[in-house]
Amino acid sequence: MILQSVLSDYKVYMYQQEKSPRTIAGYMQDLNFFRKWLEKEFNGPVYLEEITFEDIEKFLTHLKIEKNYKPASRKRVSAAIKMFYKYAWKRNMCPEDLASKIENVKYVPKERDYLTEEEALSFIKAIKHPVVQVFTTTLFYTGVRVSEALALTPEDVDLNLGWIRIKNGKGNKFRRIPICHKLKKALLDYEQWRVDSHQYFATEKTGSLSIGRVQAIIRETREKLECKKHITAHVFRHSFASQLVKNDVNIVSISKLLGHSSLKTTSIYTHASDEQLVDAVRML
Q: pLDDT tens digits, residue range 245-277?
């Protein structure tokens, strides 16, 4: 079977498995990159049964040596190829189980920048765009992903009961996040001048708010303040988790609030400050 045709079938399969559009797009981008590299190597269309484990290894080495991909990127591509070959093997499309031979790329996540509440509020106050100011306040006090916040509708934000509903989180999962009193105060004010739109966070000009606009305004604010920390929209999510850790909230609760399917994923958001380390040793 021609690889390109099998990849098209795999895309349909992922939709049937209810993978999110973002996940599917990411997988297909990596797999089509792999396919195009193979076609260049084979000098023409590639048949799935012709691809060997050595070809896969050569491609992953190409990413590391020639493309200079970082471990995190190589791990992502490797995972996409592995998942595809699991699918192909179960359907008897290839002569051997290549997925079992693909080793996970070793990757140690870097400790990310995060903000204290004082730092976050100071930064948010410096944002000149009123909608983005409320938007980032929401990120900091809920830990929602940027894409999840942008997808919120007015019906998803219940100030009376004090909950924000995430209907289509990562993996199409539903979850609810409590609205703390500090965020409620900001959202009650926002409700007084919010634009009438199907999107909760929206500007009067467009009736919506884009991720590009949010990123640009945060970048402009960061440059204006000459911040030493590399503050992005995602940093507010990380800061939310960090504040919970600081307040001794258990990791299971943090994981549920962040919408993680694994505690291992949540652990990359947790870290101890120098003061916490000193206090820990003093307990001995």
A: 888 888 888 888 888 767 666 666 665 555 565
Instruction: Identify the three-state secondary structure at position 55.
Output: helix
Closest by CA position to 74, among listed 86, 50, 57 = 57
Neighbouring CB atoms inside 10 A of 118's CB total 8
Residue 138 and residue 266 in one domain: yes
For CA atoms 82, 87, 88, 91, give the dihedral sign: positive
The answer as to whether 18 is a domain residue is: yes
Considering the domain architecture, whether residues 94 and 128 belong to the same structural domain is answered as no
Kindly report the pTM of this predicted structure. Answer: 0.68
CB neighbour list of residue 195: distance below 8 Å, 6 or more residues apart: 202, 203, 204, 207
Listed residues 101, 134, 153: the one ending a domain: 101
Query: Phi/psi of residue 166, each to 5°?
Result: -105, 105
Write out the residue range of the structural domain in which residue 133 sits.
117-280
109 lies in some domain: no
Q: Which residue blocks in 91-227 are alpha helix, DSSP H?
A: 117-126, 130-142, 146-150, 181-193, 211-225
Q: What angle do CA 99, 102, 104 make, to 5 degrees?
A: 120
